[in-house]
Amino acid sequence: MNDNLIYVKDFDAPIIDRSEVLRYAGVRESSPEAESLLDECIRRAGDVLTYNSCYRFFDIKINGDEIDLGFATVKSRSLSVMLGGCDRIVLFCATVGHKMDRLIAKYTAISPATAVMLQALGSERVEALCDRLCSEVEDIVRGEGCKCTARLSPGYGDLPLDLQRGVFSALDCTRRIGVVLGDSMFMTPSKSVTAIIGIKNVK
Amino acid sequence: MKITEFIKNNTVVLDGGMGTLLQSAGLSGGELPEMWNISHPEVIRNIHKDYLDAGCNVISTNTFGANIFKFTEVELERVISSAVDNARWAVEHSRGEQGKWIALDIGPSGKMLKPLGDLDFEDAVSVFAKVVKIGARLGVDLIFIETMADSYETKAALLAAKENSSLPVFVSNAYGSDGKLMTGASPAAMVALLEGMGADAIGINCSLGPRALYPVVDEYLKYSSIPVIFKPNAGLPRLINGKTVYDISADSFGVDVAEAVRRGVRAVGGCCGTTPEYISAVAGAVKNIIPVSLVNKKHSLVSSYSHAVEIGDKPVLIGERINPTGKPKFREAVKQGNVDHILREAISQEEHGAHILDVNLGVPGINEDEMLIRAVEAIQQVCDLPLQIDSADPVAMESALRRYNGKAMINSVNGKHESLEAVLPLAKKYGGVIVALTLDEQGIPATAEGRVEIAKRILSCAEKYGINKKDIIIDPLVMAVSADKNAATEVLRAVRIITHELGAHTSLGISNVSFGLPQRELINSTFFASALTLGLSAAIMNPYSDDMMRVYHSHLALSGMDEGFEKYISFATNISEDTMATADIVDLKTAIIKGLKDRSAELTRALLQSTQPMDIVNNEIIPALNTVGDGYENRKIYLPGLLMSAEAAGAAFDVIKSAMPEGESSGRCRIVMATVRGDIHDIGKNIVKMVLENYGFAVIDLGKDVSPEKIADEVVRVDADILGISALMTTTLPAMEETVNLVKRVAPKCKIMVGGAVLTEDYAKQIGADFYGKDAMDAVRFAQKVNNK
Q: What are phi and psi of B682, to 5 degrees?
């Protein structure tokens, strides 16, 4: 299946992995103070977090480290290893929304400790969202006798960050889910992820 | 006939989707659809023609993404002129006798405006202005700004359209399933903003199918006095039996859109997934519906980037604390260009229940224009309350209104000729609810009747400028009762006459009444209660005053404005809530180590009764911070713990500072900090700054995305001992190097410390920095070393 369509999918809040949030915040050993700060952040972020994503299937061609992704051509060892045996990918963008950035900015002004914990919570939330989206894609392709690889984002491994430009035009992220690419390749909202998942035929 | 005439008595049929049709005609993923105006004119022409043949009145040129971010100036000119030619061809060749107009289509720039993104507001205005100028020169009939998902960008586009053409402007926004714009604005907030700025029709397009958008449509119809546009998607794309379909058929789309017309919508069409078939269904379904008359809605709205506040529904509280009058520390902060102080006041007033914040930075000797813009932008990043711009300087007022994200309150105009001429045109151009003071060249009339006369004059003058009565709030001016025993009764009488006889809204600066008397809160709150009973719509007041808040909440409860006493009960419960949970911690040092902010402030206040301020700093605060700092370096305390302690120490310092004589400085070295150009990740820099401050260093924070020139200028201006710069992204490292080079050249004595996720010690050396700090404590140790030299 490659229908050339951009799918938009919103999710309910995935369950929060508290230890993961604390890890992102740099807390190696939890304390009552850290836990209560985390509780406060979860309470404050509860209303502002959204879980939006958009994704699109592409047929790909792999030639050594050169990969034609269907929306761009890229040279990357990491990606070519991950995509070994795949003839399709899902390209996605996921975000927990602009309001989280506002909330972080607010606490940066009045309480950096809270801001750091909110940052950590935002990172955990967007990763949890990516996990939800991946299992959704896994469900879709299972019906076609396929399975998914892990995910890889531009800027990780040797996958160039520049690929973001192609990703943004291929997914129309800005119109679909409000994610915007800045001149130096940072995304707004900051708690957003773009990534590629390979799809392998196992029939 | 102009479209603005036609829409007064008719339902306008707009066109449908373009992108989906181009894709099925072979447009590939990487191609820019606007290029097809030149490469495939026949395809574009036929799509336009098919829409006109389907019965549509307004076709939008294929210029959604045509802007200088995607095209060179020469290409842009060609793309737009081909697009207009194609539309014109279709108008000439289409069947049908209906009125036909060509709209210059303008979509989002594809970038996010500051402070969320990296595009400056004025740059956004110029990007749109280029497109508008070309379109206007080519003779389009109207400008259609559409699919905007951010209120600030919408404002930039509308401003560009109004400043560079006299064409009618239609503005349409894309709402999410939560009924808000992507960056948070509610429908009421957008109606306030866009109607205030003089759009000719406003509405909703894209994102969802018609039914899912009815709640947004209803909100528009409730508040908008101008025609409402509705251009939804054909539902959502879904996969059914391996085939992709939009989940709403043309016929049911027509029926659903017609329902919106029955509710009062005036311009209808389709967005993604819709085709000429859908538009034909719409045209057929709305043909025989008599349009609902347009009426002037009486809602007085001010708005922020997130929501609107209505004046007149329930009394509104306008927080007065962002004002230098009688606040030497605040004045000093404004002089230093320090916005942190302002931000804390903003957030704190919001938490105390203010609905709108007055922003007054009238400090002699500062560049008020520049400072007001900075403050407004900074407040709007962290606080979503609408703002009341309070300035006597029309230049500063205009700059702030222009940059403000929403429809502001304007404080103020008065009956003087000069004031009316300066302020009213600004309100007309940028929108706004104006506070009108009842004074004129002769001063303030002693009687209520005299003030009402001035109010009438201001209202009629505003009308001449095209400003509606609903956008004027009369302030009949509270005077000190100690100077004139009738002062309070006259102003209260004026409130009653203005409210009930003029039918206008009122606002009062409450605390003036008690000037010169003891126990001012008592007089203020009693006076406030009387004014509320007479129908006062808004009060400029101190939201930290318990007495005032008590009066306010009990008034709402007593006058039936607090459904189920929800607000009152939550307010009353908070009053009695016990805050003694941490009272068992009795020494300041422990309170700081545990990161207890309020308790630290409390204990500091208690200590000040018996101990010298500097002794508290040296014997309690610094040792506590050292314990925490050591713990952090030994990995016994983690970042959030370090910061919580720093915040607690900050709270203690604040108490101490207020006890110390003015101007006494710790004699420590001066530090300038910034996140370099191109980078908007500033949390690391902010952490370092806070920890440095709580070790007693004076830090001037230039913010994020700061150019090398600006950083160097500031280093030279304040003769800084240390510059701290950070970058998070590899793409912004060159900007860091450039900054280091420039500062080394103009201020060779200034030590430069660098930090940030992508930096290493080696890289820091390579670009010529003096020090690489891996974290906040590292920075503190370095600053201490520089300081002790």
A: -120, 10
Predicted pLDDT of residue B664 = 46
Nearest of B741, B742, B737, B698 to residue B720 by alpha carbon: B698
Question: For residues B330, B331, B334 and B340, what is the CA-based torsion angle, rounded to 10 degrees?
Answer: -10
Q: How many residues does chain A have?
A: 203
Residue B583: the pLDDT is 58
Q: Please, which residues have CB within 8 angstroms of residue B706's CB and are 6 or more apart in sequence?
A: B674, B675, B676, B677
Beta strands B356-359; B316-322: pairing state: parallel
pLDDT higher at B336 or B108:
B108
Query: Average pLDDT of chain A?
Result: 92
Architecture, CATH, for domain B300-317+353-359+384-544: Alpha-Beta Barrel (3.20)
In CATH, what class is B3-286? alpha beta
Q: Which range has the worst mean pLDDT, B39-43, B332-336, B351-355, B543-547?
A: B332-336
State yes or no: pLDDT of A148 exceeds 60.
yes
Q: Do A185 and B731 touch (CB under 8 A)?
A: yes
Distance of CA A150 to the CA centre of its chain: 12
> What is the CATH architecture of A7-58+86-201?
3-Layer(aba) Sandwich (3.40)
Min distance A12 CA to chain B CA atoms (Å): 13
Q: Are A143 and A194 in contact (CB under 8 A)?
A: no
Contact A166 B30 (CB under 8 A): yes
Report the C-alpha gap between A188 and B679 in whole angstroms: 12
Q: What is the ipTM metric for this complex?
A: 0.83
**Subunit contact A8:B730, Cβ cutoff 8 A:** no
Q: Give the mutation candidate from B643, B682, B730 for the A interface (greatest A CB count, under 10 A).
A: B643
Do B3-286 and B300-317+353-359+384-544 have matching folds? yes
| Closest in B118, B340, B687 to A182, CB measured | B118
